[in-house]
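FW: tagging you since you asked about this chain on Friday. Here's the raw sequence from the shared folder, copied in full. Didn't touch anything.
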Amino acid sequence: MENLLNRSNILTEKINPKSTLIDTFSTDNIIKLMNEEDGTVHQAINSKLVDRGSRIISELTGISYEEGYQALINADKHVKEAVVMVIELMQMLKKHLLLRFLLRILYGDRREMFPMLHKQNILWF
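HL: got it, structure written out here
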């Protein structure tokens, strides 16, 4: 109960130095101040949403937070689109790596691919 009464740790409940003398402001100045403060709320919410979206993308796809952030920015801050983009890129990368692996088996140096097996004469091809 004590935590509910103590609101000093909540950013929105702190004293705003810009409005301490609001009683002396004209109506126009009060409206200007309110509009300025409304703009800062939007910026704060936007940064929190970008952070949350980056974490969601990271958790769903297994990539790092920084990569999730970059994917979110590339998807114009749409989380669903970013997740789909990342998954599609991962699938493309897996196909590419599988193709490279198969080409190396067919045409490349097998010793280079399986050095431990070759040293122990376990290489079957």
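FW: DSSP finds six helices and no strands in the chain.
HL: agreed, and The chain has a mean pLDDT of 80.
FW: great, closing this out.
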